[in-house]
Amino acid sequence: MCFAIRFRKNKPRRILVVAQANVASTAGGSITVFFHFCRLLSDLGYEVTGSCFSEDPRKPSSLDERVHFVNLHYLYGKRKNYDKAYNRFVGEWRPDLIVFFYPHYCLEMRLSRRFNKIPRIIMFHSRPDFLFSQLEDFPQKLQPFYVNTCSQVLFESYRALLPDYIRSGEVHVIANGIKQFPERAEDEGEHKRIVYFSRVDSLKGVDLLMESMVAVKQKHPDWRVDIYGDIEPEEYARELGEAIRGKGLTKQICLKGRSSRGIEETLSDYDFSVFPSRVEGFSIGLGETLSMGLATIGYRFCSGVNEMIIDGVNGYLCDNPEEFAQAMIRLIEKPEERKEMGRKARESMRQYAPELIDEKWAGLVKSILGE
User: pLDDT at position 232, please?
Assistant: First the structure.
């Protein structure tokens, strides 16, 4: 792919990064990636502007201080809609590259043809077909604006889930970076505690976990699962609490919310991990538990999970809550097996070391900008 670039003498190249509307208020893997990505671009010497279109006037507190941030909802007055505001901003700021954190931002922006020479990257932070299913005729509607553009997917298998016009162009497989942790002490005792570590919503399968824990409770009532992560929306937290009480699992499942401690400090208190999600792109929470050396149980049908968990090697993949319960019971009753799986879990995450992922992104951005 050949990109046309405008040069400004003796000035850093400009990159506009388009983030989700709730960037200032939400948590989770994609937001963490957004902050890290902007910081990486700044470290590479680019002039970076992070942007959103939101009624929330706050600036993201975790954004690097070198990164400019603009909320287009307020920049030109509230009368401007998404596409008019962004087209005006692009015309005034004249970025050398635009990065869309999700494909629907490219569609919503509806960039004018006069900006066709500005190269673009579209990130797919989930299964591409799942993202395209959120809007009727999404692939067809996006195609007219897929100009001077390349795409990024998280796994090689996701390439086949792209529309033909995207797949036949330039597509790069770049996963999320996973923090690497030191090995755990071999003489570490048993905690009788299992952990779930990620954001919680209706797609994360906590209801499926409850079904499994009913069976686990019958054999090992002294073991429990601690669930860490923001629960969205708030009323869903109440529903989960009521369901836990209704199934008599108040001693077996605890909703902990967001941990006030660091990742390593939090996860060091657990024997293994569960990740019962229904749909994933590339879960950083799952990657961090594996990187901590925790064998993990997930579902075979869940995208992303079924690539990060290698069945029988660093954890188990299951087809239903009954199998999930049996896998939990097996890891409870076989401490040596879960320790060996934990060692392999840490090794399996080395391919996602942040410095390796950063190198891929730096190489892609530099090649687009002709550097």
Answer: 84
